[in-house]
Design brief:
The protein is an all-alpha fold and about 180 residues long. About 80% of the residues lie in helices and about 0% in strands. It has one domain. Helix 2 packs across helix 5.
Length: about 180
């Protein structure tokens, strides 16, 4: 049963990492470039709208669900450190948590909150927009697509082998969680 649970967690983590990598890639590759090409007031209004509409159950389920699966896989990797896939599960899980979650919390959210506080058609808005765009090229958000791809790759080995590192030590995890 633990084998199946870990397989499902690994699959969901890989899927979530891939979806988030796609989102981060879109922003880094063309969304921000497109917004920079339009008038500042329009770019600000568009980004303010994106910042509001992204806060929805689907985004939260994928973003935070992948954080949860990554945390669980990191714990499983530590408990099964002797297994060949453990290092990949731990590294990928930590990459997702550190780069996706922490970059979002400490970089993207404050940047978006600052932009949300200005009127799109004001002088303050234009100055804020220039700073906002400068922060996006090339910068910390470019970590997102790279991290998402690497976080997803961490799961491909164990998934293709249908072995998640805890196959031979499932009892060790069950014992640890029952204490």
């Amino acid at each position: 049963m633990i084998d199946r649970l870990l397989f499902a967690l690994t699959f969901l983590s890989a899927l979530g990492s891939g979806v988030m990598a796609g989102l981060f890639f879109a922003f880094s590759a063309f969304v921000m470039t497109a917004l920079a090409r339009i008038a500042p007031a329009s770019g600000i209004a568009a980004m303010q709208s994106i910042s509001v509409t992204i806060l929805n159950p689907v985004f939260f389920a994928v973003f935070f669900g992948t954080v949860a699966t990554s945390l669980l896989l990191a714990v499983a990797a530590v408990f099964n450190w002797g297994e060949p896939a453990s290092i990949y599960l731990l590294a990928g899980s930590l990459l997702y948590i550190l780069c996706s979650l922490l970059v979002t919390i400490f970089f993207n959210v404050p940047l978006n909150d600052g932009l949300a506080a200005v009127a799109p058609d004001s002088a303050e808005g234009a100055a804020s927009w220039a700073r906002y765009l400068a922060a996006w090229r090339p910068s910390i958000p470019d970590i997102g697509p790279i991290n998402g791809a690497l976080s997803g790759v961490k799961d491909s080995g164990p998934l293709t082998k249908r072995r998640i590192g805890a196959v031979s030590r499932a009892g060790k995890i069950a014992t640890a969680f029952s204490k």
